[in-house]
Amino acid sequence: MTRVALRIVRISELIYLDRARVDDSRFRRGALMAVQRDFLDEVIADSTAEDATFPALVAAAERRRVLVRELVAKRRERGLTQSAVAEAMATSQSAVARLEGLDDAKESMIDRYAAAIGVRVDRTVVDLAS
Q1: Burial bucket for residue 104 (CB in 10 Å: 0-12, 13-18, 19+)
Q2: Which domain covers residue 100, as residue numbers?
Q3: Looking at the 3D structure of the chain, how many domains does it have?
Q4: Are residues 128 and 69 in the same domain?
Q5: At CA 67, angle to CA 12 and CA 40, rounded to 5?
Q6: Last residue of one domain, picked from the residues 52, 70, 92
Q7: Which residues are CB-neighbours of 3 under 8 A, at least 6 positions away?
């Protein structure tokens, strides 16, 4: 697990460094995305070689990321501020901002956030054998 965490930090560092390059106008955004995707593909391949369940973990994290983005859109659509949501969650505005900016959030936090904006998140059980 430490290796995966280290790789994630490296991805963040790469993205940060490449964004700095884009700001310097030395690289085009398309080239930046290709570099990020190539590196990410390499990390996923290496991690999958070490742990066959890794792709399923990545897919689950992506589903949570999409869900959080949908919830943020719903918050904005309803005209709610991060501060108002934070008050309803009994937390700080900065905690809400972190949740909205996370690439992967805990399901319990997603549920609390959803309730604070007046929606419910439903989950279904999917049989992977079929």
Answers
A1: middle
A2: 61-130
A3: 2
A4: yes
A5: 30
A6: 52
A7: 47, 50
Provide the token pair at 86.
């934070």
Q: What is the pLDDT of residue 2?
A: 41
Sole residue written with tokens 């690289």: 27
Q: Which residues does 32 contact at the CB level (< 8 Å), separation at least 6?
A: 18, 19, 21, 22
Per residue in 75-112, pLDDT (tens digit) is: 999 999 999 999 999 999 999 999 998 767 888 999 99
Structure tokens at 70: 């949908």
Q: Given phi > 0 = left and psi -120 to 50 = alpha, else beta, which region is 73?
A: alpha
In whole angstroms, how far apart are CA 48 and each of 41, 55, 64, 76, 96?
10, 7, 20, 37, 32
What per-residue confidence (pLDDT) applies to 126?
Answer: 84
Structure tokens at 76: 């904005």
Query: Residues 26-44: what's their mean pLDDT?
Result: 60
Q: What does the pLDDT average to over 51-70?
A: 87
**Residue 54 near residue 47 (C-beta atoms within 8 A):** yes
Computed over every residue of the chain, the mean pLDDT equals 76
